[in-house]
Design goal:
Layout lengths: L2 E9 L2 E10 L4 E6 L8 H9 L5 E11 L5 E5 L1 H18 L7 H5 L5 E5 L4 H69 L9 H13 L3 H18 L6 H21 L3 H21 L4
Parallel strand pairs: 3-4
Antiparallel strand pairs: 1-2, 2-4, 5-6
Helix pairs in contact: 4-5, 4-6, 4-8, 6-7, 7-8
Amino acid sequence: MTGFGRGEAVGNGVVWRVEAGSVNRKQLELVVQLPRELNELEPSLRNQLAEKLSRGRVQVSISADKGTGTTSALTVNSDLARQYAAALLELSNKLGVQATISSADMTRWPGVFTLADSGWDVKEAQPLIEKALSQALTAMLAMRRTEGDHLKADINSRLDTLTAMLQEAAALTPQVVSRYRDVLRQRLTDAGLPLPLEDERLVKEIALFADRCDISEEITRATSHIAQFRTYMDSGEPVGRPLDFLSQELFREFNTMGSKANHATLAQLVVKAKTELEKIREQVQNIE
């Protein structure tokens, strides 16, 4: 399911902003981008996300906007600067060149000047970030639910089509046996072996054929799967995986009907049903 949401929380002169976006995935994949100083919060934030999500690739970006009330402290590592200067003088003496060191050169020595951010710490930031994340997650889930409502309407429409096809298939089934009986009698007549309808051999052959091409069980199971499909969609719970399973089972039932069918109209009906099922299966991949 796709969705996007923003959240914001203010405290201690810092505005924490969280953006959460999700795209379709069969499994749950979480990507959390935090300021480096707050990496230890990632496990708890992941747990907060996992409580509400079960599928999709969800990317969360967390940033801080510091107000005028925050300060940054500049620290100078004098001992490290002395080591740099001593090493530079020693190298100059070895090479026989004159060493000239300016204050501007010192600013480029790694680790000598450090700008320490004192705007937040982990304990202060955690509740604010979690609050902003909760807001972003709520907005993202609302967008996903809107998409889910559209998907549900589309799938329900296709399930109605499949139900109508099952009813039509049930009506066609008796014609399959009747047509086989007529064709069998005509072939026997053409071969000069006419048999009366009550002949035991003819009755037995027709009965065996009727048993082989009977699709009543498949129709019953497919009807049950469609009913379960609707129940899952109305449950309000994450149902992507059960619906995917039911889609496969429905496809299996229609496939069996097609292999049993010895009737052109029924075979065409099965092909149309399988086409509708493919569309349903594609939509189900987007459902949590």
